[in-house]
Amino acid sequence: MGSWAADASQARPNQRPPSSDKARWLSSEEIVGHRIKMAQAVETGALTQVAAKVFQQADLDTNGSLEWNNGEIRDYITQVLSQFGLHPPPESQVYQLYAAFDRDRSGSLELAECLRLVEAIVRAAFNIKFEATQQTTPSAQPATRSLSPAPAAGPSLPLAALATQALPVATGAPLDLHRLRAYRLAEEWVASYSQAVPPVAETSLVKYLDGGLQLDMSQLSAELQSLAVENAAFRSRMIAAVESGALLKATLSSIRLCDRDGNGYLTWNNGDIQDFVSTVFRSHGMSVPSQEQIYRLYTLFDGDQKARLDPRECVCLVDAIVRAVFFESCSVQGAPKAEAATYAAVEEWLANFSMPALGTAVTYFKGHPPIQMHVLAVQLRSLANVSALQRGRMIKAVESGELLKVALQTFRSCDRDRSGSLTWNNGEIRNFIGQVLQQFGMAVPTEAQIYELYSLFDADDSASLDVREGVCLVDAAVRAAFHGSELASEELPEAARANHAPASPSAGQGPDHRLEHLLRTCGDLKARGQRTAQLKAMLVAWHRAARDAAWSLQLEALKAAADKAQTKLKEEQVRFEVRLQEELGKRKRLDTSTMSARLATEAECRAEEVAETRFSKERLQWEARLKDERERRVRAEAAHGATAAEAATQAEEAEAAELRFSQERDMWESRLKEERERRVRLEASHATTLDEWAAQSKKLRRSAARAALESMVPRVKAQGLLARTLKGWCSHIQAKAARRKQSSAVDLSVASWLRKSAGGMKEAAFGGWSRIVQSKRQRQSRTKAAISCLERQWLEGARGLLASYLGEWQKLSQEKVQRKALADRRAKAHASVALVVKQWERGSAAGLLAAVTSAWKIAVDASARKRSKA
């Protein structure tokens, strides 16, 4: 590691490696706390998505790469890790990994390199490794082949080893990521299977799922005979795709598209498996099998009958269907080969395709959306940095169709497997575009720019382009690069081109002479009534000629500076080689001596001693940490025991206090019950007194009436008159029921008189009753308040309870005083009632005596009239 870092520093003199830092990046607690989350992010692709998004934000100059010297790579790693709640690692550790990815020593990393760098850092920090499946013993039958991958003797991942050395971490607890690693296991299975694929036509028995499932392709081929006839034209291409492993690699991307809920498997009931198989067949241009045909093979792989398949089972399902379809030859009469038909169709399309002018939106074939060139021109502007002559040649090649023909020939050469398509994942599309542009002397765009163009033509997300999509991609790239040029759409007349062509720099004319000549020509054209478009074309031509002249002047200075720099570089290289040979000679002489051997042995011994010392120190540190942890746990247990004992004591005290509270509450309840009974008796005595008083007052009123009658009539006639009056009054009441209404009127008048009187008996009675009720309610509210206060005071301690006792005693004393005052008020009320009765007995015209007398007089008069009539 040290020598490698030294070589890296010599290759890049401007980049000084940071100082060595052996400090651990993450602690054990951080690793355990974030490991599950980071493992999920790596396995599900969330880390890659976040890293790609941050890359677009960090690439401020939009050149498709990040540099180390200006700190872009360090800031990029910091931003990605901060998205997952992690702090960045030391700079020295990051530099070692960065140097491993910067293979061309350019001091910068592109998008794909940055994504792999972030993944390597996370995998090394959290010890996330790949798992290899076990190999099954093959059967003795010669025609039987197993699709289980061979056992991995050990992952040959120098990057993983480098990351582990650069980022010293502690091994975390074992983590079960079976479900999360389903896609990764499927990718490893496909990679191992692609190394030794059994032939389609020669293998009748195929083993899947580590030998747990064996399928007879001859039997399945008979069941899928109809599908084989429909897809007979694709037999050679699909057999090549199966045996090369390209089919299964393309199938993996289809699984991720169909896994909508992201749970790591596809289910049958919601149609995921049917959509998955249909997507794979459509991506290769084949007829889709029916649901019954898919279900027939699906049931063979769903051994646990959970109605779902993991990614590896889905890949095996597609492989089994394709093998069964193309196991036997079912060629159709007159059906051409898929490859010849594909290229022939594109050649026919090129012959009939009308080339549109530059600067317009292009619709290449039916069903494809138009490509907006002004949108792509912003991203591909760097490709148009060519000379005016080169620009004109490129525009002519685009509008004449020569570019598409060259692209078709290049596509044939890049299509090594003759499948009629190029894939993105293995770099075929990037190589194809680079070769076409280099043939025309143009710069190759970056990977990010190519991907933007590729995503416009890969409408089915199959990660591949056919022949027509590939040549249209190249045409769109060149059109977007030269978007806005006026040379193709605004052509000069032949006479104007012959007479007014801009002079070349070698003719000895400067930009000023050409400008004067151009202005004179424009005036002549305007005088002759020429169009504005021609004048505009003339101005564009002069502008480009002037720019070419300025570039020619600068080119000579640049060539001189380049020659000088090349000379210095060669001299420096010669001096470096001389020093290198001298140093190698010195080392060779020293290595052959006895002294160098002894020093090497001593160095090895010292290295072993240093390693043993470091190991002892680390062991002592871990033992000290374990001891501290044990002591901390003992102290924690002791503190826990003391807390438990204190809690038990407090619980006992609470139980005793609760018992005292219950006793006191029972005592207060008994007292309250006695008080209620006493008050009930008091109220009963009050009611009895009021009844007696009413009876006595009624008796007094009758006596007063009798005395009044006796005083008005002479004593001799009193008995006879009274008898006749009473007899007439009784007969009158019995004869006419209307007399009762008069009696009611008398009662109502008496009641109204009682209401009008301020000191009436009824008002006094109801006033006393209202005060009794109010006092009762007040005592009840005070009792409730006293109980709640006692509960609070009981919680506060014995002192508060004693104070409540004294307060209650004072309240009882005050109530006693109030009851005495109430008795005094009632005596006064009784006196006022007696006074009212006496006043009523003396009465006025509205009194009871006057009413009785008037009624008696009316009755006597009526009887006298009856006698007179008779």
Q: What level of helicity do the residues show?
A: 55-70%
**Low-confidence blocks of residues:** 1-22, 130-178, 331-341, 484-512, 590-596
Alpha carbon gyration radius: 56 Å
Instruction: Provide the β-strand percentage band.
Output: under 5%
Give average pLDDT, whole number. 72
Number of helices: 31
**General form:** elongated
| Largest beta sheet: strand ordering | 3-4-5
Calculate the terminal CA-CA distance, rounded to whole Å: 156 Å
Report the biggest beta sheet as strand number plus sense, adding barrel if it closes.
3 strands, mixed
What is the strand tally? 9
Class by SSE composition: mainly alpha
Description:
Among the domains are: 2-128, Recoverin, domain 1 (Orthogonal Bundle); 180-325, no CATH class; 338-481, no CATH class; 494-589, no CATH class. 70% of the residues lie in helices and 3% in strands. The chain has helices at 2-11, 28-44, 46-58, 72-82, 91-101, 111-126, 158-166, 182-193, 217-223, 225-230, 235-244, 246-258, 272-283, 291-301, 311-325, 338-352, 373-379, 388-400, 402-414, 428-439, 447-457, 467-481, 494-500, 511-527, 532-591, 594-712, 715-735, 738-756, 761-796, 798-842, 848-869; strands spanning 65-67, 108-110, 144-146, 205-208, 213-216, 266-267, 308-309, 421-423, 464-466. Strand 4 and strand 5 (213-216) form a beta hairpin. Helix 5 (91-101) packs across helix 6 (111-126), helix 12 crosses helix 13 and helix 26 runs antiparallel to helix 29.
Task: Describe the SSE topology.
Blueprint: H1 2-11, H2 28-44, H3 46-58, E1 65-67, H4 72-82, H5 91-101, E2 108-110, H6 111-126, E3 144-146, H7 158-166, H8 182-193, E4 205-208, E5 213-216, H9 217-223, H10 225-230, H11 235-244, H12 246-258, E6 266-267, H13 272-283, H14 291-301, E7 308-309, H15 311-325, H16 338-352, H17 373-379, H18 388-400, H19 402-414, E8 421-423, H20 428-439, H21 447-457, E9 464-466, H22 467-481, H23 494-500, H24 511-527, H25 532-591, H26 594-712, H27 715-735, H28 738-756, H29 761-796, H30 798-842, H31 848-869
Parallel strand pairs: 3-4
Antiparallel strand pairs: 1-2, 4-5, 6-7, 8-9
Helix pairs in contact: 2-6, 3-4, 3-6, 5-6, 5-7, 6-7, 8-15, 9-15, 12-13, 12-15, 14-15, 17-22, 19-20, 19-22, 24-25, 26-29, 27-31, 29-30
